[in-house]
Amino acid sequence: MISMLLVMALLMFACSNGEQESQTADAKAVASEPVEHVHDASMDDSESDAWNRICPVCGGEVTGDLETVTHDAKVYGFGCPGCPEKFEQNPQDYVKNLNEDGTEFIGG
């Protein structure tokens, strides 16, 4: 029970920490592959055209009301409003946080 509360607290912190990017993360090279923004206002919370079901940034569930980002021919969905921007800064690092089918957060 305590472990679950700790995990939930960490996820909440990751999502709310969008404005406090470290200088190290900003200094990393941006992926050479361009990113494409897509947002379909007709999507509701239960629908998304993203291939992943778990956010590669915060590890939360993907919601259909947030923008998606295309990287390496895959459309990524996100769990919090600040996550797409973080992902764009270092997509090559965040894609490693998901398992092969995008249903599990395996990164650190």
In oligomeric terms, what are we looking at?
A: single chain
Please give the largest β-sheet: 3 strands, antiparallel
Helix fraction bin: 25-40%
Radius of gyration: 13 Å
Q: Name the structural class.
A: alpha+beta
Q: Let me know the average pLDDT.
A: 73
> N-to-C SSE series?
HHEEEHH
According to DSSP, the number of beta strands is 3
Give me the side-by-side strand order of the main sheet. 1-2-3
Uncertain residue segments: 3-9, 17-33, 39-46
> What is the first-to-last residue Cα distance?
21 Å
| Portion in strands | 5-15%
- The general outline is globular
Q: What count of helical segments does DSSP give?
A: 4
Descriptive report:
The chain is an alpha+beta fold. The chain has a domain at 34-108. Helices cover 29% and strands 9% of the residues. The chain contains four helices and three strands, in the order H-H-E-E-E-H-H. Strands 1-2-3 form a three-stranded antiparallel β-sheet, with helices on one face. Strand 2 and strand 3 form a beta hairpin. The radius of gyration is 13 Å and the shape is globular. The two termini are 21 Å apart.
Question: Top keywords for this entry?
Answer:
single chain, about 110 residues, alpha+beta, 4 helices, about 30% helix, disordered N terminus
Break the fold down into its secondary structure elements and pairings.
Layout: H1 2-16, H2 23-27, E1 36-38, E2 68-71, E3 74-76, H3 83-89, H4 91-94
Antiparallel strand pairs: 1-2, 2-3
